[in-house]
User: Which sequence fits this backbone?
């Protein structure tokens, strides 16, 4: 696993760290919305939350 020093020492500053936090936040919020709206299980919701952006980018 990458250490905090490696992530923060790049010439991009904290850009990589912000990207990771934003991505994880997106997954959690999307899963919560899916679970609330469709009453899906957490496993199904998180699978959809991770899979949907991947499909949209292709």
Assistant:
């Amino acid at each position: 696993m990458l250490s905090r020093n490696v992530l923060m020492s790049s010439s991009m500053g904290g850009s990589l760290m912000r990207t990771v936090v934003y991505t994880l936040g997106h997954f959690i919020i999307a899963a919560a919305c899916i679970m609330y709206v469709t009453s899906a299980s957490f496993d199904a919701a998180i699978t959809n939350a991770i899979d949907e952006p991947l499909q949209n980018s292709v």
